[in-house]
Amino acid sequence: MLSNTTFCITTFGCQMNKHDSEKIAGMLEQLGSIPVETNQEADISIFVTCCVREKADERLMGQVASMKNLPLRKGTPFSKRYVAIGGCIGQRDGDNLQKKLRHVDVVFGTHNTEALPGLLLEAIETGSKQSQIVEGRAEFHDDLPEHREHPWAAWLPISVGCNNFCTYCIVPYVRGHEISRPLEEVVATAQRFVDEGVKEITLLGQNVNSYGRDLYGEPKFAQVLDEVAATGIERIRFVTSHPKDLTDEVIERFAMHENIMPALHLAVQSGSDRILAAMNRRYTAEHYLQLVEKVRKACPGIALSTDVIVGFPGETEEDFQATADLVRQVDYSQVFTFIYSKREGTPAAKMPDDTPREVIQDRFDRLVEIVQESAYRQNQQQLGEVVPVLIEGSSKRDTLMVSGRSPRNQTVHAEIPEGVDIDQLKGQILPVKVEEALTWYLKGQLLDFPAGAAK
Length: 455
Hints:
Radius of gyration: 23 Å
Oligomer: single chain
Strand content: 15-25%
Distance between the termini: 41 Å
Mean pLDDT: 93
Shape: globular
């Protein structure tokens, strides 16, 4: 098969793409290939792509083009490096990618990830380029082997695709219509993760709040939360939530289940009702703020995060000020800010707009200042508190520090106690007393650790 070969996966975009990458790694390892960290070490380079924003396209093209003259590793069984592109750009562009990037050997789409090993083997055996794009599928498929990034954390897709057709968004065109996974399969997978020692499950869907509408005639996400919580998993998170489908029943689950983490990503996109209507978001700023009020009543201290697009076609200064006012009022813990990116094939791409780029950039910069102030203020609330942190490993910037996530999804750093083996801390939920609270992270002292962690 692929024994004595190596592979590297580069993933762009959302958590669903990260999950797809774990499936690809699982399949290739079953065939005997070995994962490596860099494309320079790899015999097979796979790119799982995102086309939500133009920068993702540019990054892909740049990275793949730069590999053309990358030398092969010593000991490779191949006379060339094999390059495969999948995910949303693969779905959108198909074999046109092989015309733009002539050293790409395999292209596959979002609906046929399982075809990649066969396509690679065919390309290797015949020396010919391979491309396979499936336009959609009628059922949910998630029964492939996987190699999780961390043994203590797992993605659990409950649905794929999207039926919302926001005017700026390409996702429904490349991920297809919404398909839900049967509830019993979701729960069985969650129980398997618990039995394997997983500490944290993240439920995935382009819109988890509408889960089950296609299977059961009505959304059943609240029931998903009930049944996954009943497995005894220590931490539950979910992304992403569309405000128009966030029900009182789902909000109530934050108060009902201690293992649902006090963090909610609720994408607002704009605070202007006029722009929200142009985006086809199907809620108003007032409705969104009412949801925030309900959520905070059910779960005081919850960390709220969101997405905001600046510079949507036709956005005026008045529209932007409405967005800035909403961001101030909600006082988010984290805001992902984006300048509008035109995506061909979406309705917004045809909307006229003559707003100068420098005006849009100025609005973006002003919003970022508001966001930073809010994030700092939210983190200050935890100063002096002891928070349970799921340890992920050493800090990327300081190997003498451990890094992990709080229940509110904050990054937390703590000094590794002398004589403690960090590998024994990974995947453990440990108490950290917060001694410093900055804009993007907390820092503190590790108060306890397993007895077996001492070297």
